[in-house]
Amino acid sequence: MMSTYAWIGLGNMGGPMTANIVAAGHEVRGFDLSEQACAEAAKGGVQIVSSVIEAIEGADVVFTMLPKGAHVRSVYEGEQGIWAHATNQMLLIDSSTVDIETSRYIHEGSAQRGLSFVDAPVSGGISGAASGTLAFMLGGAEELMERATNYIAPMSGRTIVAGAASMGIAAKICNNMMLFIDLMASAEGSQLAHQLGLDPEVFWEIASVSSGRSWAQQTWYPVPDIIDTAAANNNFAATFRTDLARKDVGLALDAGQSTGVRLPAATLAAEHFDELISQGLGDKDCSLIVKNITPDGTVRGWNPEQGN
What we know:
Layout: E1 4-8, H1 14-23, E2 27-31, H2 35-43, E3 47-48, H3 52-56, E4 61-64, H4 69-76, H5 82-85, E5 91-94, H6 100-112, E6 116-119, E7 122-123, H7 125-131, E8 134-139, H8 145-152, E9 156-163, H9 167-195, H10 200-208, H11 215-219, H12 242-259, H13 264-278
Parallel strand pairs: 1-2, 1-4, 2-3, 4-5, 5-6, 8-9
Antiparallel strand pairs: 7-8
């Protein structure tokens, strides 16, 4: 049965996610402030509209996929926002990675207006978005989970109910913190192996069947010509921007402070990202932290004079 999706946020993740929904036979009306993002999404069959209001009119489900909590709040609030124009027949789903406070705010504000809302952040990156194999983590009322799962199905390899309101985003914050810690391990291990004279591909193969294996090592390994998905093959053009990685680590550090949990490894990851951002490299891939590790700051696959 065909459904009508409203989609707010057609960037690196939203664009390929909506293409998979269209390919599954559904209608998607999309809105984004970026003309380039809209043009790319249109190639995937998304009907581009000029406002949030136009996107959600008559929709069965409304997805938001935006960079930060402030962006999510802005599209929900105000006379031109989702809350002002959604109906109680629609399901509202946010797949952005936001702070716990924003997630709770949207849950509570939706409930006060008689609207149904689920937080459903994702893991799997741009490659997972393109292949329709993302992992979704759901938080919200139990009676909404089956309905949300059905709308998510065209984009998902796995959908897991994390628990009540905001438990999806809680799971995502913890997961991304682990990801960036694993990325540090791949960066340090790859460069130490190089300095010790190991063949880069041979060492990667050893780590792949040993205890050094991780998603970051398999997908974001910061050495060129080893795996196809590495940003190191493309002068570290972003698959996951450094500034957004820093934002996500910051969410974990904020949660650690509020709960009293000590997060020394996450603190170190934040310092790595801050160093790149201070050098004007916040728009490069987060795996470029590898340049912080080498003896002289140079690294295979990185040419600072070359554009993306």
